[in-house]
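Before going further, learn to read the protein records used in this course. The integers have meaning only within a learned vocabulary of local backbone shapes. To see the layout at work, look at the sequence and tokens printed below.
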Amino acid sequence: MLKEQLAKLTEHLRPKANQGAGNASPVLPWREAWQQAKELYADYERRVEALRPKLATVPGLSEMKPGHAVLSVSLVAIVILAAVVVMPWRAPQGAAAYKSGRSTVAAKPAKQYEPMAVGENVPSEMTKGDMFSVNQVGYLPNAPKVALVKGAAGSVFKVVDVDTRKSVFAGRLGTPIQDIDSDDMAQEADFTPLTKPGSYVIVVQGSGSSHPFLVGKDVYDGLYKDAIKSYDDLARLAPAAFHDAQAYLAKDRGKKIDVSGGWPDAGDYGKYVPTAGITLGDLLLTAELQPEKVLKDDLKLAGKGESLPDYLRVVKVELDWLFKMQREDGAVYTKVTPENFGPFSKSDADVGGTQYVYDISTPDTALFAAVMSKASRIYRPYDAGFAKQALAAAEHAWAFLDKSGAIIPTGDYGTGGYVYGDDATQRFWAATELFKTTGSGKYHDYAKKHLSRFSSGSVGPLAWIDTESMGLITYYFTDGADAGLKNKIRDQMVNWADSMVNTVDSPINRYKSSLSVYGWASNKTALDNAVLLLVADRMAPNDAYVDSALDQLHYVLGRNSIGKSFVTSYGANSVQKPHNRTMFSLGKLVPGVLVGGPNKDAQDGLAPSSLGPRSYVDDTMAYSVNENSIEYNAPLVFVTAYFRPYQE
């Protein structure tokens, strides 16, 4: 089986070596061809290394040492590379495009679909969610549509209209290939040509049926609205004590300060600047890059509205709380929590005990400055007074940072350990936001110095602990930014996105996950990758980036090895028992809430450990896999907003 997989892997990599064939572009110099060949070789070796644990089980390789096996397989790559170097090599977009660092991902060839008869009545089959992995919310009409099937007895699948029970599409299941992360032997059911809106199931007669799903241009519309509205719902439905509790300074317990309002951070009632900062950054980025998708909706929010778009009303709740976390000297406190996590309680007066405000830190002060500066720009057309207040607070925070010198770290006490090693990326992000908002040279100089010191930055997760990518995105989309640095940022983003597309499209990555490790908050990581792919597409348009981003949404909505939709109330097999005290106390789900997802470390002792994408259990006490967080939902909002129709 592994030999077959490696053969397919070789074929998968061949288009990368031969991309652009037939293009009339000039032939690249041999040194440039050799450089691309070396990159192909390195990419191939990385993939082979990932298969090492399976090598010992393969007939003919069982006596070989892993290094010998890798070398043997790598020789196959060398053959390809030799052909690449000897044969004419043509640039996919011309030599000038190649040198500028544009995408090297080849366009996918048009797939040929075997015509098969449809329209007959298809008898009902037992639903087998463990056999059929589909996006249980749905698929866009003009986008790729793929499900995975395991252990089916037949070779033909049919897409069946739920209402009429008539088939609307039929195709042959793809070749069984073992998924590298789950070990599932899975076959693709590709029904991309089906564009007619409707409610469907996939059936393999004699084997079973999938959960239902929709096809339609607005399949993610309701999910987007619930995903952003859940911030408001979870805050409004929190116990009265969450809204009324007094908070004491942790270092001066005789002094109370007003830090009321905001959102419950996760499954508990703590409020943390690190997660608030990255969440608000992501949500405000959504509004900045996709205003036509998010600023025109009536979200049917409770209470009297302000003269703001509903999306910005939701976000302002957390911004208003964040203002209260700033000290008079501009520094920002790190969190508001009890000393220990409280129980799961039905009481409206229980939020885990007395609330304390824990001391300031420079990373959190920088996060505050970045978010408030960004908010100033976005709210200015709707509320000039609020925008002015936000910018003043951001500049006040920067003034504190400017004179603070070395990092002032957070203390590791209270609930939720958010500990920073340094504050370089947080300061960088703040500088880029302040430069974009004010145009001031002092902020630009700081950002350029950072980019020079760190080779123009690197693309990474959208995380509170490392905000480099947030700063890179802001700088790139800033008028007046250095053109050379912007080109470098674009090239780095394109290189990252190309690599991610290759990972997602690998034939042994059956579920098209962007994850290499299934750890804490794996679902957030997958959707963060989707956000970065969509941003890369804006910098250098490429349909492959968009398709791979959409694959991450398919993954969290059920096209995964356990057939689970990780979003509450979305999908026939969706999360039922999230680790969330508000939903527990109410005895009902708030829709549109994403949980952390599979976690190989399974720190709660309830989820199975070391099973990668299968390290998950739907249990209220399984906090390591089934807790929600404000930072998890932010990329879900961004991605579902992108894939919904434009709002008139």
Remarks:
- The first helix runs from residue 2 to 18.
